[in-house]
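worker-3 :: picked Lecithin retinol acyltransferase
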Amino acid sequence: MGILSNRVERSEIKAGDHLYTWRAVYTYSHHGIYVGGSKVVHFTRKKDSDPSNPDPDPLPSSCLTFPDCGFQRPDSGVILTCLDCFLKNGSLYQFEYGAHPSVFLAKLRGGTCTTAQADPPETVVHRAMYLLQNGFGNYDVFENNCEDFAIYCKTGLLPMDDPGIGRSGQASAVVGMPLAALLSTPFKLLVGGPVGMATVTAGMYCAGRYITDIGVRKDVVKVEVEGLAAHLGWRESGGERDLIDLSEEEVVVLEEEEQVDEEEESRRKRRRMI
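worker-3 :: tokens ->
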């Protein structure tokens, strides 16, 4: 891998590597974890997703290489495919971990590297295979996409304060470019000509990408894959908890907690009246 390209040959990859390939003439990239045996675990929409919101990365209708290619649980977007079906005739690239900040900033295209350190390959493969059986929540192009899945498998890191903020450098780049252009507008009076303006915009874009990188952010924590559902089981929404794919036992626990909170609030009100 180099500064300008992370392209690799099939003979170079090993189990636990974070792979990606470009789609739609380099418009976006699709990411996954190589688990060995020419197979990749990656993340897309669930089989029963809304037909009006189609899968951004549909699989071929059949695979002549592996009979289990395309294994996917009905209620999960995590899928196992062969490397050929993952690539769809595209080139093979390897996501870079532990990138030096200067290297990270030199790669102007988001979704190719991170400053975060990767965990051992056996841990990465374990996470990917566990999530293949247990799911990774609902797919969201900005908050929970294929790159987010692969980065979690490699690092075990998740945002702590706001689970709605994804880890994807690709999504950050999409949002960051127009935002950088907007924020750099006041500098028109300070820089001369379009070259100066472009330089300021590019600088703000790179700075925005860097501070949102999973290896730089301070709001992330290490979450064991077995505890992932509990970590993401509910979110605060308007002061109330939204239940997301919880088991009956977990729902009962949350309802009991809510009841205790209500009783405590009722006691506080009575004390105020006295």
